[in-house]
Design a protein that fits this description.
The chain is built from one helix and 38 strands. The protein has 460 residues and is mainly β. The strands form nine sheets. The chain has a six-stranded antiparallel sheet, with no helix packed on it. A hairpin with a 2-residue loop joins strand 24 and strand 25.
Length: 460
């Protein structure tokens, strides 16, 4: 069942029939891409000219405009869309193993940086050209630099003999920061990083030529991951993730962060030289995580998930909040020191989790939250109730705008970025037919396969 929280829009559907698609401005759109297999868009990055770039995964064959893209197995997917959401180009990268692009960032000149995970041998060059990366273990991290036309500039591998994944990337004129997780050891250029737990988080800094400058482990003796990274104008990186047990979050002698439940969320700030400047935790007695972070001139924003009652202040204070469902989304605004300014909760009776953040020019923030009927945080073939919400908070934490997204067989919104006009662009996946409230209109997006990639630009 699709649930709409906008009564005027719902009344319009009742009056005119559920099959209607109200006319949208040409630059505001929602598009689905895929074939008979499983496709999804994991990351989105708009450029200053209105084009939108996406990264994700493809299985099998799918048409993107006039191009047919075929994967060797489950491959990484990168595509470019014009101002009206029409495909300009699309490329699959990978080999016979399982490969996926998980994050995407862009320089002002248009060059793209894509990170993800690959296994075995992966061809990372578009078209007939070949440029291969070879995994040292189960899965390794790939880092690609592409031109805005999709041509490969360089490719790098980070990894070791076990399971390693690149989960997020941030870039500016000084270089790029890659966050992720690894097991055992991680080779990054000439540096070998040794883990301290079952799975550890990492943050690596590379220059724009692809040379590793340093790599930092983040974690303790159990399962940890660095899930998101954002970089201030001065080069200080804010890293968000999850940890179990204890993890270091400062200079030698600084007390470690200690989880109060199965897993807690963490936020650490890392200097341009790779030193940990400080950090904090959020969480309670359940399974909690900080899943996305954004920064601006006045501080930062954090989102994630929490259950039961949790302390949602990563600073020195304590701000406890109770969830309404099995897990709820939290959205927090932070000072430059990491101390809490405000926190809000999103969620109902099921599993809710924050998946994306984008700060606007007025000091507010857009937050992306998914609602999942079943645990596991994946599209469930039997679920028809997975949906997402896009919410705008002003600088004081008041909700200004809310947009709904839903799918007949489930929908997951996975990433969020703002274009040069401040309009939110979304990436995700859906099953069946997706319904996207793009402003004062409702767009219906047909599906083609088991899951399809969703990309949308929504009016602010």
């Amino acid at each position: 069942m699709l649930v709409f929280r906008h009564p005027l829009l719902w009344a319009g559907l009742l009056a005119t029939g559920a099959s209607v698609v109200w006319a949208l401005p040409s630059e505001i759109w929602a598009r689905g891409f895929g074939g008979p297999g499983r496709e999804r868009a994991m990351a989105v990055a708009p450029d200053r000219g209105g084009k939108v770039y996406c990264a994700g995964r493809i299985e099998g064959s799918a048409s993107f405009g006039g191009s047919l893209v075929t994967s060797a197995g489950a491959d990484a997917l990168v595509m470019a869309l014009d101002v009206q959401g029409r495909p300009l180009w699309a490329h699959a990268f990978g080999g016979p193993g399982t490969d996926e692009a998980l994050s995407l960032a862009m320089l002002p000149n248009g060059d793209l940086f894509v990170v993800g995970a690959f296994s075995e041998t992966a061809d990372v060059a578009p078209g007939a050209e070949r440029s291969e990366l070879m995994s040292a273990g189960g899965t390794d991290v790939f880092v690609l630099r592409l031109t805005r036309e999709g041509a490969l500039v360089w490719a790098r591998r980070l990894g070791g003999p076990q399971e390693d994944r690149g989960l997020d990337v941030a870039v500016d004129a000084r270089g790029l920061w890659v966050a992720g997780s690894f097991q055992g050891t991680l080779d990054a250029g000439t540096t070998r990083l040794a883990g301290t737990g079952q799975t550890d988080g990492f943050l690596a800094r590379l220059d724009l030529a692809g040379t590793t400058l340093w790599v930092k482990g983040l974690g303790g003796s159990q399962d940890d991951a660095a899930l998101s990274v954002a970089v201030e104008a001065n080069g200080t990186a804010w890293v968000a993730g999850s940890f179990e047990g204890e993890m270091a979050a400062g200079a030698s002698g600084t007390p470690p962060l200690v989880s109060t439940g199965k897993a807690d969320g963490f936020l650490v700030r890392v200097s341009p030289e790779g030193g940990v400047l400080g950090g904090g935790r959020i969480g309670g007695k359940g399974d909690d995580a900080a899943t996305a972070v954004a920064v601006g001139p006045a501080g930062g924003w954090l989102t994630g998930r929490f259950s039961a009652t949790a302390d949602l202040d990563p600073g020195a204070g304590v701000t406890s909040m109770a969830s309404a469902g099995k897990t709820d989304t939290f959205v927090a605004r932070l000072a430059k020191t990491g101390d809490l300014r405000w926190v809000q909760r999103l969620g109902e009776a099921h599993y809710d989790a924050g998946t994306g953040l984008a700060a606007d020019a007025e000091g507010g923030v857009w937050a992306l939250s998914v609602q999942i009927e079943r645990s596991g945080f994946r599209l469930d073939p039997e679920s028809t109730d997975d949906r997402a919400a896009l919410v705008h908070f002003n600088r004081d934490g008041a909700v200004q705008i809310s947009r709904d997204l839903a799918g007949e067989g489930g929908l997951r919104a996975l990433d969020l970025a703002l274009d040069s006009a401040g309009n939110p662009c979304l990436a995700g996946a859906y099953r069946g037919k997706a319904t996207v409230i793009t402003g004062f209109e409702i767009a219906h997006v047909p599906g083609a396969g088991l899951t399809d990639a969703l990309v949308a630009r929504i009016v602010k």
